[in-house]
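Quick one:
INPUT:
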C-alpha cells in the first residue's frame, strides 16, 4: 500500500505458539502505551495466523494496533514497518524472525533470550531490551532517528550476509 513506514513497528508470529502470543500481548499492552507517549502516531502491526477471536477483539480495542492476519509472504509486513520488535522470551532453534528481519535490512529490537549464541551485537546489529520500558525506549529511539534506524538495518543485513546467506561470498 501507500502507507508510510515511518512510525510502524511490526511483529510476526503464529499465535497458537504461546511465546508468540505473549510477545504480541507484551508489545500491544505493555510496550506500546509507553512508545505512544513519544510517538503518538506510531502503529503496531501484528502479522500471523491463529490469533483467537478473543485476542483479536482484545487487540482491536487498542486503537493503535493493526492486525494483518496471516500473510502469504512476510514481506507484506516488513515493507510496512520501520522497526521489527521481537520480545520472544522463549526460544526454539535458530530465531528465523531475526534472520529474516536482518535479511530485509530492518532495524530490530529483541530480547537477550532470542539472540543468545548468534554473535550479534547490541547497539550495532540490533537493540537488546528486557522489559517494557527498555523495549519502548529502544523503539522510540529508532522511530525518532532515521539514520540510526538505517544504520542498524544495514549492519544487521551485513551480519545476515556473513552468517546466514546461502552464498558466503563477498560480492555485493
Amino acid at each position: 500500500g501507500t502507507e508510510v513506514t515511518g512510525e510502524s513497528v511490526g511483529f510476526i508470529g503464529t499465535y497458537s505458539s504461546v511465546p508468540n502470543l505473549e510477545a504480541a500481548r507484551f508489545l500491544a499492552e505493555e510496550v506500546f502505551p509507553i512508545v505512544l507517549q513519544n510517538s503518538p502516531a506510531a502503529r503496531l502491526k501484528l502479522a500471523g495466523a491463529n490469533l483467537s477471536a478473543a485476542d483479536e477483539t482484545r487487540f482491536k480495542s487498542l486503537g493503535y494496533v493493526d492486525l494483518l492476519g496471516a500473510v502469504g509472504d512476510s514481506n507484506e509486513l516488513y515493507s510496512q514497518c520501520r522497526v521489527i520488535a521481537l520480545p520472544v522470551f522463549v526460544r526454539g532453534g535458530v530465531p528465523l524472525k531475526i534472520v529474516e528481519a536482518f535479511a530485509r535490512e530492518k532495524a530490530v529490537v529483541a530480547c537477550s533470550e532470542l539472540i543468545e549464541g548468534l554473535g550479534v551485537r547490541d547497539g550495532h546489529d540490533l537493540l537488546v531490551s528486557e522489559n517494557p520500558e527498555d523495549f519502548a525506549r529502544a523503539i522510540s529511539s529508532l522511530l525518532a532517528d532515521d539514520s540510526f534506524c538505517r544504520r542498524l538495518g544495514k549492519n544487521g543485513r551485513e551480519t545476515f550476509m556473513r552468517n546466514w546467506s546461502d552464498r558466503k561470498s563477498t560480492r555485493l
